[in-house]
Design brief:
Largest sheet: none
Order of helices and strands: HHHHHHHHHHHHHHHHHHHHHH
Helix content: over 70%
Distance between the termini: 35 Å
Radius of gyration: 22 Å
């Protein structure tokens, strides 16, 4: 009973922060305090509780390094003109009938390349939303396509922090996990694309003039195929299965070369951009392209660290043991994936952030599915995908806020529903055959 009360208090604090437009870091700090007091009430000393924090953070040290590199990459892809070049070469393909599937695919492409849903929403999402609005497509549909595309890559990109976190927690190889995630996403990808294409035909407007993104970028950047080298490197090196951090370092070095030699940037200015992000002086361009940098990852690093401390406390105190037994009963009655999906919904509703939800779902269900490789895919197809479907979760709030889309957009995030639904059908068949 105590555990449920504490989870309720923590969830209430998170909800208050979201409704008050206050950083959820305050709620996470509050949660760390009450869960630490819980550990103290069980007889653990302050020194031992601090050791729980350290033990929780220890498995995600590499994630923190990767987050720092991602901050630099997302800033340099802006400064070197990589993202503008991608948009420049794809802008001519937009039309009312295909704006929604193009939004889905382009956001999916960018999120797969950079591994961040928020960065994708702030760049390609903003562009697609502006174009779709001028074409007369309802913004809630565009918002759904953006959400789906953003988390297509956030789920299965070698640069995704959620994919890296899942691989770290389960002790699996991220590239083998990516193969499984791609395999389980083929049918949802095809179905979602068909749905967006049908919606584009039905809801598309008369084809008003589109936002001339090409002109905006052409005035500021030198656009040519060489500018795409940092993005191409990520694709090629991921196919060669190089470590994620090495891929990002290679892309960073390529960006420096492109920014200096092609865009005419000053080397020392790039150091500032790496830390603070890219913020162009042109107001029109700044609305589309600002962001990135190590500092942009600061709140996410704090969230990961605090969430990891929770995981250490829950592990050492057995906080989740009662819920673990419930998950085991569900898996026996239905299937392991049903149990993991239920846990993912509950943890995402309570945690309001993807990182903590992944960790909690892992703790609740790690005895449900004993095969690490299968468990990793099931975590990706549940905890990672459910997060943006929770209206008060930051995985939902941030992308939709960036493109000024309504919360009703979650009803058009069809890819996110199709992933777990398509996974449920075969799991039930397997269960019935046993």
């Amino acid at each position: 009973m105590t555990e449920i009360l504490l989870l309720g208090l923590f969830s209430a604090a998170l909800l208050i922060c979201i409704l008050s437009d206050v950083s959820i870091l305050f709620a996470l700090i509050f949660g760390l305090i009450i869960f630490s007091f819980y550990a103290a009430e069980l007889g653990h000393s302050p020194r031992k509780i601090f050791g729980m924090w350290k033990e929780g953070v220890r498995p995600v040290k590499q994630v923190l390094v990767t987050l720092t590199l991602i901050g630099i990459v997302t800033a340099y892809w802006r400064a070197a003109g990589v993202i503008p070049a991608i948009i420049f070469y794809t802008a001519d393909f937009f039309s009312p009938a295909i704006i929604l599937p193009m939004t889905f695919w382009l956001c999916g492409l960018i999120s797969t390349l950079i591994g961040t849903a928020f960065g994708t929403a702030a760049t390609m999402g903003v562009i697609c939303a502006a174009i779709a609005e001028n074409l007369g497509v309802p913004l809630w549909l565009t918002g759904g396509a953006v959400l789906s595309g953003c988390y297509l890559g956030d789920r299965c990109s070698p640069m995704s922090t959620s994919a890296l976190l899942v691989a770290t927690l389960t002790g699996t190889d991220i590239f083998k996990n990516l193969v499984g995630m791609v395999r389980t996403s083929i049918i949802p990808l095809i179905l979602a694309s068909a749905f967006y294409f049908a919606a584009g035909i039905f809801f598309g407007g008369e084809g008003a003039a589109t936002v001339d993104a090409k002109e905006i970028f052409a005035r500021t950047f030198e656009i040519n195929l060489f500018v795409l080298i940092p993005a191409i490197l990520i694709v090629v090196l991921s196919l060669l299965r190089l470590p994620v951090q090495l891929m990002m370092l290679a892309s960073i070095l390529a960006c420096v070369a492109v920014a200096v030699e092609i865009q005419g940037a000053e080397f020392f200015a790039l150091i500032k951009i790496a830390v603070l992000g890219y913020y162009p002086a042109n107001a029109e361009l700044a609305k589309i392209l600002s962001g990135g940098g190590i500092i942009s990852m600061a709140s996410i690093v704090a969230i990961v660290c605090l969430s990891s401390c929770y995981a250490g406390i829950f592990q050492a105190t057995g906080f989740l043991h009662r819920l673990q037994s419930l998950m085991i009963r569900l898996s026996k009655k239905f299937s392991p994936f049903v149990s993991i999906l239920v846990a993912a919904v509950v943890t995402n509703m309570a945690a309001c952030n993807q990182t903590l939800a992944i960790m909690l779902t892992h703790q609740l269900c790690r005895t449900v599915e004993p095969r690490p490789e299968i468990f990793a895919i099931q975590l990706e197809n549940s905890a990672v995908i459910v997060a943006p479907l929770i209206p008060w979760a930051i995985a939902n709030v941030v992308p939709l806020t960036l493109i000024d889309a309504p919360q009703s957009s979650i009803f058009a995030a069809w890819y996110l529903y199709l992933i777990p639904l398509c996974c449920l059908a075969p799991s039930q068949v397997i269960k019935l055959r046993r």
